[in-house]
Amino acid sequence: MAKDYGSKRVVVGAHYGLRDWLSQRVTASLMALFTLIVIVQVLLPGEMGYDKWAGIFSAQWMKVLTFVVIVSLLVHVWVGVRDVLMDYVKSVGARLALQVCTIVWLVGCAGWAIQVIWRL
Q1: What is the pLDDT of residues 7-32, one digit of tens each?
Q2: CA-CA distance, 87 to 20, in Å (whole number)?
Q3: Helix 60-88 vs helix 92-117: angle between axes, to the nearest 10 degrees?
């Protein structure tokens, strides 16, 4: 008769590792590309002021790109915060409450971003 030493390890969510890693890299790349686009537009000739800044974000393609980047930022934040909570908050109830609060906050940020972007 074979003895079992230690506890049986049940691995759940192991397949999330690659997906999370990839989503972090893709969203970070999108944010970096967006930053370069904005920097190039800011450095174009002309006085920097509200009119130039509003002009950069007045084109429909820039509004859509900005929103895509904001959604990427929110996904990036969610993956990072969720991983930190999973690693450091041991109480399941507290972790769930913090995750729900994070989701509500991120959805609120997305709604606010829509208002700001399309109000320009």
Answers
A1: 665 555 555 688 888 999 999 999 99
A2: 15
A3: 170
Q: What is the CATH number of the domain that holds 23?
A: 1.20.1300.10
Record the tokens describing residue 5, joined without a space.
Answer: 């030493």
Q: How many CB atoms lie within 10 A of CB 73?
A: 19
Token code pair at residue 117: 């972007």
Number of domains in the chain: 1
pLDDT per position as a tens digit, 83-103: 999 999 999 999 999 999 999
The residue type of 116 is: V
The two structure tokens encoding residue 111: 């709604």
Q: How many CA atoms lie within 13 A of 94 on its CB side?
A: 8
What is the DSSP track for 12-41? -STTHHHHHHHHHHHHHHHHHHHHHHHHHH
Task: List the domain range (segments joined by +) for residue 75.
Answer: 17-117
Other C-beta atoms closer than 10 Å to the C-beta of 69 total 20
From 33, 31, 37, select the one nearest 56 (Cα to Cα). 37
Q: Which residue has the tokens 């507290």?
A: 94
